[in-house]
Design brief:
mainly alpha
Amino acid sequence: MLDMLKNIAVYDKIALENSLEVKKGMHGGPVFLAFFVLFAAASYAVPVPLFPGSYVPLLGIVDIPSTYAPLVSAVVNGLVYGTVVWLVFILASRRLEEPKVRQIAKKPQQRKRR
């Protein structure tokens, strides 16, 4: 009976750690959404062709009517630049969290040595 309770406690601890990991990863969604909207709106508002969205109608991969070309270009620019900013954010946040994880991992080892 005692072993079963210990196993349940271990599984609960693992489930809690996994749920915390999911919550940590949710910070990237709002960042992507904010920069997608920002870049898409800026690309649509400014009549200057901006890479890579301006190449989508020019390459002819997808047949786009000329009336929708600025909108498609803006959406592509929002997706590309929003993804770039999201990746930079994720990599920077992991880089900043890495020392904290190492410190937390060292604490139990220091306690065992005493």
